[in-house]
Design a protein that fits this description.
QueA-like, Thrombin, subunit H, 2 domains, alpha/beta
């Protein structure tokens, strides 16, 4: 399968640069058996039934971007990819000349950081500080907006590029399908009888990287940490018994659930996943996917194509462009029912 089969032309004006004025005031494109329905996000309440379970990713975006200088005086930008412990991280480092092991960086005007080495595309860094890394980032770091958002993070982004249910700090990108939900919608779903469950998958910056290989099978997937609570497994098992469906909010929730079910039934626990879902994948857990629109040639577009059908998703994206839906993190949403092969 060629990567260019997942390409499409997107007018730049359709890339949402800011969230809608009110959280949840988005459009919703419903895809079911090749039939497209234009709706509003608020219509999701009518699309779900009491036996269903809605699975949300409760990861919290950290203030992962830092600016500073090397000892030589050269400017540098650091984007933390993963916090390893209270003093060490893996990070992307942008500089005119790559820093070497044993060198030091001076960030945010007060923070000394030692370069311990390289791990693949990332640098292994040690923060020389008295407080835990997460606390330091919260105080000195900046919110890491996606590369297709052209403005620096503003006060609006501090609130709106975070879900209302964010809990576990560790992501460098938001689980953007969850951004549509406000407390009122979540309570309305609960009042209807829909069960709300949570997983945690700390989204990495690799989520924005296009697949550059000519063939899909040549792409190496980035690794992300996830956790599935036993309470979530129990809710999903109960939904199955009651004839309900599992609705994953976002590709991150789906990836966590499918990663935890590779050996049979869904299991609770923590793990690392490099799961790369492409057309032909047999889904084990998720019945319906709520997701935003994704980048051309991306692993996430491949995932939704596997879930909803390549022809069906290609037509849905053509329709979305024609109808001027808003794309990517701050954009509109899709509700996709799994295509049964």
């Amino acid at each position: 399968m060629r990567t260019d089969e997942f390409d499409f032309t997107l007018p730049e004006c359709l890339i949402a640069q800011h969230p809608p004025e009110v959280r949840g005031a988005s459009r919703l494109l419903c895809v079911r058996d090749g039939i497209l329905e234009d709706a509003d996000f608020s219509d999701l309440l009518q699309k779900l039934v009491p036996a269903d379970v809605l699975v949300l990713n409760d990861t919290r975006v950290i203030r992962a971007r830092l600016f500073g200088i090397k000892r030589s005086g050269g400017k540098i930008e650091v984007l933390v990819e993963r916090v390893l412990n209270d003093t060490e991280v893996l990070a992307q480092v942008r500089a005119s000349k790559s820093p070497v092991s044993g060198s030091y960086l001076f960030l945010a005007g007060e923070l000394n950081v030692e370069v311990l080495g390289r791990e693949g595309e990332f640098y292994h860094l040690r923060f020389i500080c008295d407080a835990p890394v997460l606390d330091v980032l919260e105080r000195l770091g900046r919110l890491p907006l996606p590369p297709y958002i052209t403005h620096a993070a503003e006060d609006e982004d501090e609130e709106r590029y975070q879900t209302v249910f964010a809990r576990a700090s560790g992501a460098v990108a938001a689980p953007t399908a969850g951004l549509h939900f406000d407390d009122r919608m979540l309570q309305a779903l609960r009042d209807k009888g829909v069960k709300i469950a949570y997983v945690t998958l700390h989204v990495g910056a690799g989520t924005f990287q296009p697949v550059r290989a000519e063939f899909v099978t040549e792409h190496r997937m980035h690794s992300e940490r996830y956790e599935i609570p036993q309470a979530t497994v129990d809710l999903i098992d109960a939904a199955r018994v009651a004839g309900g469906r599992v609705i994953a909010v976002g590709t991150t929730s789906l990836r966590a659930l499918e990663s935890a079910a590779v050996d049979g039934g869904l299991k609770s626990g923590t793990g690392e996943t490099r799961i790369f879902i492409t057309p032909g994948y047999r889904f084990r857990v998720v019945d319906v996917l709520l997701t935003n629109f994704h980048l051309p040639r991306s692993t996430l577009l491949m995932l939704v194509s596997a879930f909803g059908g390549m022809d069906e998703i290609r037509e849905a994206y053509r329709h979305a462009v024609e109808q001027q839906y808003r794309f990517f993190s701050y954009g509109d949403a899709m509700l996709i029912e799994r295509k049964n092969s």
